[in-house]
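Can anyone check this?
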Amino acid sequence: MRCKLANLVLSISFSLVLSLPAISATDNWLLYVGNSKGNAVSVIDLATLKVIRDIPVGKDVHCVALTPDGRRLFTTSEVDHTLIISDTTTDKILGTVKLPGKPNQCAVTPDGHYVTVPIRDGDSVAIIDVPQQKIVKVLPIKEPHNSVNMGSNRYTFVSSMGGHEIDVVDFEKMDYSAHIPLGGRTRPFILSRDGRTMYVAVSDLHGFEVVDIAGKKVIERVEMPSVNPGPARPRRFETPDTLTHGLALTPDESELWVTSMLDDGIYFYDLKSKTFTGHLPTGDGPNWVVFSPDGKLAAVSNTDSDDVSIFDVKGRRELSRVKVGRVPKRIAIAIAPTGSTAQALSPSTPK
């Protein structure tokens, strides 16, 4: 099994090299914000740090995922139990796929062919063939929560909160190729670019676990410091055992940024020295973290204050706290496609 996982790691690493988009200083990056108690995705222009439009997609948005070219947006509705496919050049819905239950965070392959949708109340993950706009496989998984695709057209990772593990979906087999055990109830997670290491938030831990993917084992449990170490205060949109929710690697993979629900802040963990080097305040209820591909900006969605904190990564300061819709959760960054509505509406970058 270790040999199989080692081969899987090599396959993911090779796929990432091929699928990562080229980055230039002139790229117009947009931040897509899913408003989980609304019916739209807010779009923030990262050049001006302003909301330039809202894309109507359906009630109670959970998933926000995009193809690398930024042309296709995938969202899910927790009310209608649907996957919604939208064209970001026109903001029009291209199609919907009815799901067998309440969806959570989905993921799309770089070629846009497959989308995985965890069905939280159905103990399953649905695999959707996008060109056919239909479910082609449903796999069992106990209380799934998040899907993550790191640039592979063959593999996607799905977390099992109930099973305390991460499962690897193989699209060639239309089955699981691995099950990676963890030390607790699995929350959001992220993988290193080489596919060897995973960083996982788990319930009741103010911090994260470090996982050796090929070895299928937790190799370190890291606890964050806290300004407010007492019991977590009640949250409107998270369970009491959620002390950490979002986490993300900087593009150069020198740091891991981790949200703190105890402190309403974001902590910086240096991966070389294995130490926390500081933290900054966010809005109320930090939920999800993403970086601009050039590593200059970081964004954190704040559920309880209905806004997004945008940070200057190098300068270690909050540049803006942008108001969006109700209860923003999942966020994603993509380039504005040529000729899109975004480019027509976006103001020019200030000199």
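Reply from J.R.: I decoded it. The domain at 2-17+28-345 is CATH 2.130.10.10 (Methylamine Dehydrogenase; Chain H).
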